[in-house]
Amino acid sequence: MTDSKYFTTTKKGEIFELKAELNSDKKEKKKEAVKKVIASMTVGKDVSALFPDVVNCMQTDNLELKKLVYLYLMNYAKSQPDMAIMAVNTFVKDCEDPNPLIRALAVRTMGCIRVDKITEYLCEPLRKCLKDEDPYVRKTAAVCVAKLHDINAQLVEDQGFLDTLKDLISDSNPMVVANAVAALSEIAESHPSSNLLDLNPQSINKLLTALNECTECGQIFILDCLANYTPKDDREAQSICERVTPRLSHANSAVVLSAVKVLMKFMEMLSKDLDYYGTLLKKLAPPLVTLLSAEPELQYVALRNINLIVQKRPEVLKHEMKVFFVKYNDPIYVKLEKLDIMIRLASQANIAQVLAELKEYATEVDVDFVRKAVRAIGRCAIKVEQSAERCVSTLLDLIQTKVNYVVQEAIVVIKDIFRKYPNKYESVIATLCENLDSLDEPEARAAMIWIVGEYAERIDNADELLESFLEGFHDESTQVQLQLLTAIVKLFLKKPTETQELVQQVLSLATQDSDNPDLRDRGYIYWRLLSTDPVAAKEVVLAEKPLISEETDLIEPTLLDELICYIGTLASVYHKPPSAFVEGGRGVVHKSLPPRTASSESTESPETAPAGAPPGEQLDAVPTQGDLLGDLLNLDLGPPVSGPPLAASAVQMGAVDLLGGGLDSLMGDEPEGIGAPSFVAPPAAAVPANLGAPMGSGLSDLFDLTSGVGTLSGSYVAPKAVWLPAMKAKGLEISGTFTRQAGTISMDLQLTNKALQVMTDFAIQFNRNSFGLAPAAPLQVHAPLSPTQTVEISLPLSTAGSVMKTEPLNSLQVAVKNNIDVFYFSTLYPLHILFVEDGKMDRQMFLATWKDIPNENEAQFQIRDCPLNAEAVSSRLQSSNIFTVARRNVEGQDMLYQSLKLTNGIWVLAELRIQPGNPSFTLSLKCRAPEVSQHVYQAYETILKN
Amino acid sequence: MSEKHWKSVVSQSVCDYFFEAQEKAADVENVPPVISTPHHYLISIYRDKLFFVSVIQTEVPPLFVIEFLHRVADTFQDYFGECSEAAIKDNVVIVYELLEEMLDNGFPLATESNILKELIKPPTILRSVVNSITGSSNVGDTLPTGQLSNIPWRRAGVKYTNNEAYFDVVEEIDAIIDKSGSTVFAEIQGVIDACIKLSGMPDLSLSFMNPRLLDDVSFHPCIRFKRWESERVLSFIPPDGNFRLISYRVSSQNLVAIPVYVKHSISFKENSSCGRFDITIGPKQNMGKTIEGITVTVHMPKVVLNMNLTPTQGSYTFDPVTKVLTWDVGKITPQKLPSLKGLVNLQSGAPKPEENPSLNIQFKIQQLAISGLKVNRLDMYGEKYKPFKGVKYVTKAGKFQVRT
Hints:
The complex is a heterodimer.
Chain A lengths: L13 H9 L4 H16 L8 H6 L6 H14 L4 H14 L5 H13 L3 H15 L4 H17 L1 H6 L2 H8 L5 H17 L10 H13 L2 H12 L6 H11 L8 H15 L7 H17 L4 H17 L19 H14 L5 H11 L5 H17 L4 H13 L3 H17 L8 H6 L7 H13 L7 H9 L7 H17 L1 H16 L5 H16 L1 H8 L15 H8 L5 H5 L42 H5 L3 H9 L13 H21 L15 H4 L10 H11 L13 E4 L7 E10 L2 E10 L9 E4 L7 E2 L14 E9 L12 E7 L4 E7 L14 H10 L6 E5 L6 H10 L3 E8 L2 E9 L5 E8 L6 E7 L5 H13 L1
Antiparallel strand pairs in A: 1-2, 2-3, 3-6, 4-7, 5-6, 7-8, 9-13, 10-11, 11-12, 12-13
Helix pairs in contact in A: 1-2, 2-4, 4-6, 5-6, 5-7, 6-7, 6-8, 7-8, 8-11, 10-11, 11-12, 11-13, 12-13, 13-15, 14-15, 15-16, 17-18, 17-30, 18-20, 19-20, 20-21, 20-22, 21-22, 22-24, 24-26, 25-26, 26-27, 26-28, 26-29, 27-28, 28-29
Chain B lengths: L14 H10 L9 E3 L4 E7 L2 E7 L5 H19 L4 H6 L1 H11 E2 L2 E2 L4 H7 L5 H10 L29 E14 L5 E15 L5 E6 L7 E4 L5 H7 L1 E4 L4 E10 L9 E9 L5 E10 L7 E9 L4 E8 L3 E5 L4 E7 L8 E8 L12 E8 L8 E7 L6 E15 L2
Parallel strand pairs in B: 6-21
Antiparallel strand pairs in B: 1-2, 2-3, 4-5, 6-7, 7-11, 8-10, 8-20, 9-11, 12-13, 13-18, 14-17, 14-19, 15-18, 16-17, 19-21
Protein name (chain B): AP-3 complex subunit mu-1
Keywords (chain B): Cytoplasmic vesicle, Golgi apparatus, Membrane, Protein transport, Transport
Subcellular location (chain B): Golgi apparatus; Cytoplasmic vesicle membrane
């Protein structure tokens, strides 16, 4: 008497037989038939042909039969929309049934039928059910609203179901509340703008009360909802935390993790001196540890989250190192995660234990795990300086085991240790050299070669060792070849007499016999260096290397903060923000940690708040090459791509995309280029095309040069700086600066060819930036740039390009292409190139505007060590289009009131206070877009001090 | 394979990604629990030789899904006595009905087995006979009473002739012991499982002799957290039947006694294709109780071909395919410590194995909670009858590993 018999009918005409049975008069037979149909459905067989017959069985008083028919309907209604309407009547009738179970069943099934035509018939029954006297029906109906919203959002809004749903949050039954919250948060997630869950202290209170009473899934929804709320001050944050902490003892791990999320987020608002902060930290540890004793799948998710938490607040788990020790029968994915966390928690206090463990792991069976363990030892050495010695000796022990992959991993990490602690552990080199023959992986070979080259003077037979590698030069991977080339050059510089032959050999191998451009380039560079100036070569090649940083794999702080808001979700498992992998279509709200605003401090004057960053910091803000590349590539790729895109193909796409415009105009060079733009015209004609600049500016520009410095003279021009060093751009060095002359912004570039080949086909493109800067004409390099030649170009810029706010505001990312490759660099432009000529404001206007801009927008800065008096300041600023509107003398201080306007029409008002005899000025800036103040201040600094 | 869709129907082909991952993982246990595919996420658990896979389209807490899947597996276990392919096939209609009750539009509805059992009656031979005669079904046609009360875990109108309340305090020792016999890591994972068959609405409170031991606990939702915080008393209205009341963890190492020790010497000779194997087990801190049900499992290195051993007690097996040695020891009698020694045959010519096998040890101690936790008393309020009460203690090895 089991159900498995339903699976066994596979003969022909099965559907036909079922049809007959479904239409049978006997109740029993009918039910059996429906069961058979359901069984076929579960294994993926198509039984949709039976739709009318099954629907006919719907009107029955047998609950089980009804349930089964409903199950069938949910699966197939979509494929048979016309037939599905037949079922509507029964639904409407069932919604009035005296049995609440049937009412709820009907309303639940209704929502699962995803057929547009039906939805409108469902509104009335749904409205009734939302107000049903029985909570079981109400809670089912609440979920149904979310389902309906998914099918037809407009309908739900028009019918006012959302308001009814909001009312249900205050329902007397906690289950109803939980489902209402769940439904609302689902709807809010798909429509981020709808502002459905406008959380305020009252509704938060309601939720917190419901939290204690409802089921676990309801608790999860409520906690997730709470996490989106930003308390108004630390007191409120604390009181919410207090009410959430009991959830940490819940048996359901999802509840625990959601509670952890709320606490981690709100902790951000609490002052660290608070006693409560400490208590909270202590309370967080045990539940996290408990998660690790659950099933391995839960452990994995928990570990991924702990990894985030440990990075954000290492103090939470600093005493719990031992729970992360690996058991040999943990699944591999758990082992690797545990290892990662162990390293993050490693400190001087526990390093001995950690090392002992890691050494243990290095003898395990699983190769991946062993490798990671060996690497971990190296990372410990780099992280905890005091342990470096022990780590090195542990690694040496491991090398003695002679297990091939262990030795190789150990050598790779020892190289890093040498970089971190130079001149400390070189005594081990001898041991390393013994294992030279067993290395067969490129990374390990390259590491070993690096070591030999770096310490050539201490290794007697360094030349022999390197020579032995050289024999199979062409079979090596590029990584090894490059390393070998460098190592031999180093060796030559250290021991020139014996190794001349060797270096000749490697240079010729690299430059003549190799097809790899990187290798060839590097070979040529060394060759030229060595042949022109060996002393300089020594300085370059044997230069002091920067120490490597402690931890390279930390998640970037802003991303980390965002991920903390997603604890317990998929984002936290992937360590990527949801926008990076959730399918498009659904908007994703960007979440961030609440700012720390203590209630007591918030009333203080804002004077302390906008303290200017020291000028030295702006350099850090320039993104590194890698980031930049990523940024540029993301330009127009449209919706976020899920999963990591293939690097190689993406680079190509990006390059094409970026230089699309540039390439087009380059085509104009060739006579057969169809529809070539007006590029053929002489260069001067290109200038008036500058959209943002006043008419005729090109001409006045010319006159300006001849007439010398007059009232029209341009603003301050910074000396040219190197933007793209030759070593990063295969020999092309770009330096430049920005100027503004008579209303025209230009980018003055100096291109130098430091490569050995001729460069042609130059083109330039900007990434979108805050002020829409874009080249107004193509980059014109008339003749091919031959080696060692330098050319100066002034590239007119317009501000009509597309605008995208950058961080920092004044950064500009540039792509330059030539016949060799595409290069990316980024630079910061001084804001004063954007100050327009008609930036003088009327006095009355100034006064009114000053008052009109709210005080929060005011920023104060100090300009130190400026020996000028008020007149000189005023005239100097005027030449950079900062206009003095009024000047007053108050108590012996000169007050200059100044105005300026940016190309995009933003006005900035300034008050400059100058005390005679005191070289420090006080600058107050007011602007409707306060984020520019910082950069305007920097412009002031530059103009006044040069 | 059996499928059930809640929101829109997802094509069966997404599972191909899962099968791919499954093939890639050498061992079924190593299949990653979260797999991403171009449009969906697959979250899976592995239980009782079955994979439960859920397909996700939007951002959800994965723990929530994993918990739910485990709950589904628990429910099947509870309903059918086992959670196996055969059981699911035999009861496919009930399975479907259960899933329908447990989840709606992706939101869990009823996951408490107490409630589910009222909605859908578990199959019994008797009932299926009755059903087939009378034509009635195993679907309850009234609304479960507990579902909507403020104590959703308990149904109303429970009646027993014998009222009983039993508690099992079960402690598992998780430990890693290193080569030299010192403890690297040890903690106790404890649970109190209850079997409560009491009529009406009993309100229980359970107190301990030494509640301070419990500083890291997770509670069943029925427990009043405030009472615990203030008085360290577990006060609750219990669900009907079997359930886990609390689980707890004792981690400070001085509280964790290690009841057994293992003397071992496993060595492989260089170039001789054989090795020696010798282990002895003895009692350590066993509080005067007998240690029984001892089993030792060892994953031997791959190059081991066979083992030729002699146990002083119990019996051993060696599976040459999986390389797992299992020694069923039984009880320890302190007068004569059990040992297992003999020769190991290695594949000839292969290098001697680098890794040393870890020993996995199972044991059981009756009438003892190794942490020292003791129940003081159980009081019942709200009902007049006098229930039978009982507490049982047992200590077991959890993940108890000895490195060699």
